[in-house]
Amino acid sequence: MSGVDRETEAVRVTWLGLFVNTGLTLFKYAAGFMGNSAAMIADATHSLTDLATDIVVILGFRIIRKPADDTHDYGHGKVEALLAGLCGITLIAAGVGIFWSGTHTIWHFFTGEPIERPGLIAFVAAILSVVSKEWLYRYTIGWGRKLNSNAVIAKAWDHRSDAFSSIGTTLGIGGAVFLGEKARILDPLAAVIVSFFIIKAAVPILKECMDELLEASLSGEKEMELHDLIMSVEGVRGTHKLRTRKIGPVIAIDVHILMDESLSLVEAHDISARVEHLLRENFGSGTYISLHMEPVSYYAAAGARQLTETKTSDRVE
Question: What is the pTM of this model?
Answer without folding.
Answer: 0.63
